[in-house]
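Hi R.,

Here's the chain you asked about this morning:
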Amino acid sequence: MRDHVIAVDVGTGSARAGLVDRAGKLLARCEHPILMRRADAEQAEHASEDIWAACCKAVRMALAEAGMDSARIAAIGFDATCSLVLRDANGAPLPLAKEAETAFDTIAWMDHRAGSEAEQCTATGHEAIKHSGRIMSPEMQMPKLMWLKRNRPDLWQRAGYIFDLADFLTWKATGTTSRSRCTLTAKWNFLAHKPSGWQDDFLAEIGLEDLKRRGSLPDDTVAVGRPIATLCGYAAEALGLDTDVVVAAGMIDAYAGALGVLGNAAGDPRQLDGQVAMIGGTSSCIIGFAAEPHHGTSIWGPYFEAVFADLWLVEAGQSATGGLLGHLLELHSAGGGSAVANHRAVIARIQELRKEQGDEFAEGIHILPDFHGNRSPFADPNLTGVISGLTLDTSFDGLCRIYWRACVAIVLGLKQILDTLDKAGFSCDCLHLTGGHVKNPLLVELYADVTGIDVVIPQSDDAVLLGTAINAAAAAGLYPSLTAAGSAMGPKGQRRAPNPETARLYQRDYARFLAMQRHRAELNSI
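And here is the predicted structure, written out as tokens:
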């Protein structure tokens, strides 16, 4: 009986595979690192063949760990970061750079090389931009494609296939060039609510009139919860599966996380009102669903049917959250690098200092966390971070004070985003938290106390993998629909209410946070 599914999640630094039963229980979870090339602070590149190999290794390891017969696997689903994969007309890698035998043919999601191209997209004022928060981000695919055509015409002329990373993985798995509605709507300015999703006038205005031909982009998309095809022979052998395994439409990783934590409420769309998923990792994404479209500056979307049928998805986010905390450990002389053990040591010491000296033990240090630009609410990739209140203290405790205040600053930024969503007509009554931030008790506490709203931690080892598993289960027909799969497989959650005793403290921090933003703007204007 084929009653299990495999979920594969490709993040910034690794590929993870999970083996999940039809009740949503994660039976095995294995991970394999992926490569990243950083030519400078603005550029980041992956190698798609390295990513595919990591996925295959992770899947084989998960099957072995669970001792599962591959004949019991009904489907496989892939989610990934919104990175851009380049292939030539024969399907071979089209590398931006080579190092040894590695072809770096993928522009990573966090790459900001296309800043000026993003500004030109914004200047068009096209309706498509209205669905990108009215300001195009260099993390979207159109600016990256414009950069490629202008700066690497040699690659553009040779291009035969261009994929969002999740769609690349379903192509490798099936040989089918079908694309996901989730990826194209969210990252390619494809308007799924219109009879013709591609806006040809917009593509012509930004100089990409030949994009559909160069990228082998179809006019139709495949919805989340629907199959692309079954595994081809090559992929089945590489993954340790068989050719009867269904491959689900790909997903953006953050949207898979939203499905994982909100899926059990999707049977009744009214239950989704005011429920917001927050996927916290290297960066953070805040995602909600609504029956009607909500537009706002710096709010990505609304995207029609990016996950659920007949519902609009809205997204906001922070470009550097977990990445900022890791950066501080790399930067400070007492940090010792960004390994997990170092984060844990700092967090443990912070808890000790708070018990000894109170929550104001780091009083005087104030931070703006925009070290990789600001996605929301300013939609400005050129904004920079600020640390106020530094001394000559190079001790470990000194690092702990900065780290704690960075955690506070990250969540103050989230509070500002939620205020922005509220002004756009989308209110947040409850925050469902998933991703790596769940493992940081400081952030979990702050998310409730700073925002003043309840936080729910799902009782799941990995909600992103679970969301991808829900997608795969629906595609395989284990359930009649995506919402039915979500209702059956979605996890319960542990609710944490805000602590009213800290409200005054964080209200003062928020006032200072907003004041620092005004001062930064004043400095930048001189």
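One quick note: The chain has a mean pLDDT of 94.

Cheers,
M.
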